[in-house]
Amino acid sequence: MADFPISRRNLMLISAAAGLSACVKTGATPVVARPDPGLEPGLRPQPNASYDRWVAAFKERARSRGITDATLRKAFAGQGYLPGVVERDRNQTEFKRSLEDYLNIVAPEEKVTFGRRIVAGQRSALAQVEAKYGVPADVLASIWGVESYFGTKRGKIPVISATSTLAWEGRRGRFFESNLMDALRIVQTGDARPSQLVGSWAGAMGHTQLIPNAYQAHAVDFDGDGKRDIWSNNPIDAFATTARFLSKAGWQRGRIWGLEISLPQGFAGLVGRRSKKSVSEWRALGVRAARGGAIPDHGPAAVLAPMGFDRPAFLVFRNFDMILRYNPSENYGLGVGYLSGRLAGKGPLKTAFGADRYGLDLEDRKALQAGLTRRGFDAGKADGVLGKKTTAAIRGYQQAKGLAVTGTPSQALLQSLR
Ligand code: CA
Fold first, then answer.
1. Which of 121, 185, 378, 407 is the most buried (most CB within 10 A)?
2. How far apart are alpha carbons 128 and 410 in whole angstroms?
3. CA-to-CA distance for 284 and 363, rounded, in angstroms?
4. pLDDT score of 9 more than 90
C-alpha cells in the first residue's frame, strides 16, 4: 500500500486539561527541534507571514495562561508553518476506505506475524496494565499495532509546527490551539524535550499516538520512574495511559468488544451501532458465531455488516463503543478488534470479502498491481489496496497500450497483464 498515507483521523479525545498536577522534572537539556531531513518539503517549515502573525498573537494568549517566555522560546525554536499538514487535514475524507481495504492496511498477515513476536516481549507489561485497568492485553497490543505498528512508526512530524499550523488554518482551530497549548505545557513541565515532540500530522505522539490534550488528561507514570513517558522505547506508560483512557470512558472489565458472526439468508434484523438488541434476540433472528459455538452474552449488542450481509459481519458490545472513543471510525474499531484476535492466536476472518465492485478479489488485485509493476508501471506494494499509485499505473499502462485511459481496474485488464 502506502501509495496514499493513512490519514490520521481526528482523535476525539476529550480535552480535560485543567487541574492535573504535572510531574516536576529536572535536568532536561533544552534541545532545539530540528526538522527531520527525511521529511518531504511540505513537512518542513515554510515562510508564511499570516502564520507568523498568528503565532505572535497566540504567544500572548499562552503567556496569559502561564506559559513562560523560556518555554515559548524553546518550544518554537526551529518550528514553523507546514503546508503538508494542511493538505493532509483537507484530504482526510478522500481516504474513506472499505473495511476490507482498511483491514489489509492495518492488519495484513506480515504485520500479524511481526506483532505476535513483538507483543510476546511485552506480555508482562501488558498483563500488569490489564490487571490495573481491566482492558485486555490483546486490545491494548492491537491499538499499539494499529497506531504505531507496534512502536516502530511513531511519526516524525514536529508537533508544535503541526498543531500551530492547523490552529492557524482554522478549520478546527480551537481544537488544535488547545492541543498546542497542552504541548507547551508538556515542554514547560519537562515531561518531554521539544525535540521529542514529534508524531502524526495531527499532533498524535508516541506508541499509542496520543494528542497533547489526551496526554494532559490521562497520562500515567505506570513504571514509577517519575516520568509520564509515552515517547521512549519502553511503551508501558503509553499502554497504561491508553488503558486508563478506555477505563474512564467506561470499558467493562471481563467483557469482549465483539466477535465475527454469520447472518442467515434473508436476515431481517436492523444493522448499525444504534440498533442494539440482547444476544438472545439476535440468536432468534438467526445470528450465529462465525467460528461456531455459543455467542457470549456481554450485554446489548449491535450487528455491523459494513460491506453487506454476505460479507464479514460482526456483533459488537459496549466495549466496541469504548474503542470508538479513541477514534470514532467503525473501521478503526473493527480493525482494532480484528487485530486483537489475531494477536491472541485466532485465524483470519471466516467469511470472505469476495469480489469488489470491479469483479476483483484480493488476490486479483495483488496480481494486478504486481503485473503493472512488472511491466514498468509502478503500482506500489502489491497489497491489494488500490490507491492513487495503482490508478496512475493503470492509466500509464492503458495509454502505452493504446487503450481507453480510465484508470479503472477490471478482469479484462488483469487478464491482459498475465
Ligand atoms: Ca514512567
1. 185
2. 50
3. 36
4. no
Side-chain half-sphere CA neighbours of 336 within 13 A: 29
Q: Which of 165, 194, 184 is nearest to 78 (CA)?
A: 194
Task: Please give the distance of CA 364 from its chain centroid, rounded to a whole number.
Answer: 27
Residue whose entry in the numeric block shows the C-alpha cell 464479514: 312
- What distance in Å separates the CA atoms of residue 15 and residue 13, rounded to the nearest whole number? 6
Question: What is the H or E stretch that residue 185 is in?
Answer: helix 173-189
User: What's the 234 CA to ligand 1 centre distance in angstroms?
Assistant: 9
pLDDT in tens, 308-365: 999 999 999 999 999 999 888 999 999 999 999 999 999 999 999 999 999 999 999 9
* Residue pair 84/164 in contact by the 8 Å Cβ criterion: no
Strands 258-262 and 157-158: unpaired
Cα of 228 from ligand 1 centre, angstroms: 5
Beta bridge partners of 277: 301
Please tell me the distance from the alpha carbon of residue 53 to that of residue 145, in angstroms, as a whole number: 39
User: Which domains, from first to last, does the chain contain?
Assistant: 41-92+154-249 (1.10.8.350), 258-316 (no CATH), 362-417 (no CATH)
Alpha helix stretches (DSSP H) within 220-361: 236-249, 279-284, 318-326, 330-343
Cell of 33: 527541534
What Cα–Cα distance (Å) separates residue 376 from each residue in 2, 371, 393? 18, 9, 9
Q: Cα separation of 372 and 300, whole Å?
A: 48
What spacing in Å lies between the alpha carbon of 225 and ligand 1's midpoint? Answer: 5
Other beta carbons within 10 angstroms of residue 63's beta carbon come to 13
| Global confidence as pTM | 0.87
- Nearby residues for ligand 1 (ion, Cβ within 5 Å): 221, 223, 225, 227, 229, 237
Sheet with strand 288-289: strands edge to edge: 288-289, 258-262, 313-316, 302-304
Taking all residues of the chain, what is their mean pLDDT, rounded to a whole number?
90
Q: What share of the chain is helix, strand, coil (3-state, %, to 5)?
A: 45, 5, 45
* Cα(207) to centroid(ligand 1), Å: 13
Distance, CA 34 to ligand 1 centroid (Å)?
Answer: 25
| Residue range 182-187: mean pLDDT, rounded | 98
